[in-house]
């Protein structure tokens, strides 16, 4: 400190600096910083006993024991830090005898101390990993004001990970697991440590397969490999048994592999599914939903609306559904039991409601009609059923499950009246009655599908009555997108007579401005264009 700077400090009142050397003269012996690099720790020497596995839970601890006196006016500290990436910890010392701990996540750390002591003090540093002493440094008779650097430890810690989740393979297939691991440099990608040894053992399910090497040679149910020799392990599942009804029975198909290194274990599971294949074949991918003429209670329009309370399966379209089971060589598997269910896709076919939706049915040998059947393949590996479709426009779905949760097959059948188009807005009519409009409970958001002929005729009719009388027609329900029963009360009954084939439209008695349309007039106009009208609360218009 120069005289000039001391004068400046005096002006600010920090007069202590001026008198300090005099006051402490007898105690301060060496004023230069002394650096000591202990020779026993050199970075180039690998410390093999410190190749310890850590997986996020290890703690690196540095203890300092100290005898003597610290200089109270200078900051002494000791520290442990993770190289390059981030610092670990730093403690400023007031009292000697401290401990500092950091999570041992990296592979290399440095640690050290700056001690401003009175001469004659002594210090001991001890480095622990999870309580195990890794290194000890003794410094008796320290010079005053000493600074100690300890070297970095390369490859001090390592870690490994298995990039392998639980896996599903079929009999006869292979599973390959990557085993990544071992950081040997901080902030560097994980690489194998060549000396790290790993053990893989099949602890359960040995009868289902075993380890194989890159050439397909069998390695048995336990392998020990060094990192330099293995980055992957393969498991080979035994092929299915060729006997009839073969394949695994669906139980005991779990293989558990335990991987271990440095006392740390992890488990990988492999599920083996039978190598058998279930196929579901439907003869017709598209069927007609129930049409106007299938409305047996009311095939022709009458004043009275009557409804079938359930789908009349004597009127729905049918197709053949075949369950086929083959082994891995495509040979038929007989006596294979399965469950098959008839389902429907929610909201399909323009029905924006799902509750209670009818499904199709299978006809059993006893002539029952069931939504779920249990069956078995015959000598040809097949089982055939007559399928009665749900009758509702939309997607019927069939699901078959074999002996395990993994042996499944599905098929869909579209129930649809062909060639229906959506009527678009026009100048002389309003399209009304969609779900979401005020007062509409029918859960069908799109209710204006029809044949091209119906749409063309309705537009002509609207133009015609507008030209005569300036009416703007209010066109309500026509048909749903796929046709079929139009259940305005959302109960899969059919309150709408017809409206199933895209040839009907309901037109309100009053026009868009509230004007009542005379019935005789409207019928005349409809007939003139080749259509028919029935009046029952509204005009029910038909153009076939
Ligand atoms: Zn519906
Ligand atoms: Zn109608």
What's the short story on this structure?
Helix content is 8%, strand content 37%. By secondary structure, the chain is mainly beta. The chain folds into five domains: 1-29, no CATH class; 31-157, Sandwich (Lipoxygenase-1), CATH 2.60.60; 159-273, Immunoglobulin-like (Sandwich), CATH 2.60.40.10; 277-415, Immunoglobulins (Immunoglobulin-like, Sandwich); 421-542, 2-Layer Sandwich (Muramoyl-pentapeptide Carboxypeptidase, domain 2).
Topology overview:
Layout: H1 3-11, H2 16-23, E1 34-36, E2 52-53, E3 59-67, E4 76-82, E5 89-93, E6 98-103, E7 109-115, E8 122-129, E9 132-139, E10 146-149, E11 157-158, E12 160-163, E13 167-170, E14 174-181, E15 197-204, E16 209-212, E17 218-220, E18 222-226, E19 232-237, E20 254-261, E21 264-273, E22 277-282, E23 286-287, E24 318-326, E25 337-344, E26 361-363, E27 369-370, E28 372-376, E29 382-388, E30 394-401, E31 408-415, E32 421-422, E33 429-431, E34 449-450, H3 452-469, E35 473-475, E36 504-507, H4 519-528, E37 532-535, E38 539-542
The protein binds zinc ion (2 copies).
Summary tags:
single chain, 544 residues, mainly beta, Lipoxygenase-1, Immunoglobulin-like, five-stranded mixed beta sheet, five-stranded antiparallel beta sheet, binds zinc ion
Question: Can you describe what's shown?
Answer:
The N and C termini lie far apart (111 Å). The protein is mostly beta strands and 544 residues long. The protein has five domains: 1-29, no CATH class; 31-157, Lipoxygenase-1, CATH 2.60.60; 159-273, Sandwich (Immunoglobulin-like), CATH 2.60.40.10; 277-415, Immunoglobulin-like (Sandwich), CATH 2.60.40.10; 421-542, Muramoyl-pentapeptide Carboxypeptidase, domain 2. It has a five-stranded mixed sheet, with no helix packed on it. Strands 12-14-19-16-17 form a five-stranded antiparallel sheet, with no helix packed on it. It has a five-stranded mixed sheet with strand order 13-21-20-15-18, with no helix packed on it. Mean pLDDT is 76; it is low at 1-57, 152-164, 182-192, 242-251 and 298-308. The structure holds zinc ion (2 copies).
